[in-house]
Write a structure and sequence with these properties.
Blueprint (H helix, E strand, L loop, with lengths): L4 H7 L6 E5 L10 H12 L4 E7 L12 E4 L5 E4 L2 E6 L18 E6 L6 H14 L2 E12 L9 E4 L3 H7 L12 H11 L3 E10 L10 H15 L6 H18 L3 H18 L5 H15 L9
């Protein structure tokens, strides 16, 4: 990790040097990978001082993002309302949290429940906070369900809509078109104010995802990507162990279903083809056609 993306941005002439990392629960967070990875980052870097809170009736429909009753250490119950909060280092001076950053205040993390309403107002308030804190770059962290095998490393796709980022670091623009989330609204508003952004999206195996269940392998992939981009040291040992255990569990479950076993083999072959040095569009198409041929109905007189 000799150079990070954002070290390069400074060398290319971008002013400032503070970064806001954004991850939200909900639609953007398959396998709870993004929210868990960023929460783990906050815990390990001691980013536990709340410096901003975005909440209230303007942003949340409480029928879809319900408040929760929680019991405090003293035994009293309180109502915890949905919100997003920005955390930063507890101490203003460099400390253990800043061991590989010039100072701890260069890194901010925004996490919490994705707002339900008034995204343009919400995005403007987040960007206003960035301007007050002289934050000039965003890292958006998400996770989506995808056709990727659980037996391979979870891919983390990096994209940016900023030409300078694309040209300097070979980061491509996203080709996605369709429904999106509040994080995109923040990025679009931020770009209007000259704040650049990088997106990190983990591709979670869709067949291995369960409601309200985490995906340790995707969490591990995002932690590694964040460590590389932000030049921070992250202890990943527990996530490596959890990832291995999760993979074994999924493999054992799939072994009981012949159809799923064949499907995972196809995903593995397709992934290996894409990752190989000789990968080409023709090779990938041929692999897909082979899979379809294997799955096509046989003649009625042929043994099954």
């Amino acid at each position: 990790m000799e150079n990070s993306l954002f070290d390069g941005l400074e060398q290319a002439g971008f002013a400032g040097g503070r970064t806001l990392v954004i991850a939200m629960n909900g639609w953007n967070d398959a396998g709870e990978a993004a929210s868990t990875a960023v929460t783990a980052l906050a815990r390990q870097l001691e980013l536990n001082r709340v410096v901003a809170t975005f909440e209230g009736d303007d942003f949340y429909d409480y029928c879809t993002a319900r408040p929760r009753i929680v019991r405090q250490d003293d035994g009293h119950r309180i109502l915890e309302w949905p919100a997003t909060k920005v955390h930063a280092a507890k101490h203003p001076q460099p400390n253990a949290a800043a061991r590989v950053l010039p100072n701890a205040n260069r890194l901010y993390l925004l996490t919490g429940a994705e707002p339900s309403m008034r995204w343009r107002q919400y995005a403007s308030e987040v960007v206003e906070f960035c301007q007050r804190e002289e934050i000039d770059r965003l890292v958006v962290v998400g996770a989506l369900l995808a056709d990727t095998p659980h037996t391979r490393d979870v891919p983390v796709v990096r994209t940016s809509e900023d030409e300078s980022v694309q040209q300097e670091f070979d980061v491509e623009s996203s080709q996605y078109e369709g429904p999106t989330g509040a994080m995109t609204a923040i990025v679009e508003r931020a770009r209007q104010e000259g704040i650049v952004a990088l997106s990190l999206w983990a591709q979670v195996p869709h067949y291995a995802a369960a409601p309200e269940a985490s995906s340790p392998k995707a969490i591990l992939a995002l932690l590694n990507a964040l460590a590389e981009v932000l030049l921070v040291e992250v202890d990943i040992d527990s996530f490596v162990e959890a990832s291995s255990h999760w993979e074994t569990q999924v493999t054992n479950a799939i072994a009981m279903d012949d159809e799923m076993t064949q499907y995972v083999k196809f995903l593995e072959q397709a992934r290996d083809t894409v990752d190989s040095e000789a990968a080409s569009g023709e090779a990938i198409a041929a692999e897909f056609e082979r899979f379809l041929a294997d799955e096509s109905p046989r003649d009625e007189g042929e043994d099954r």
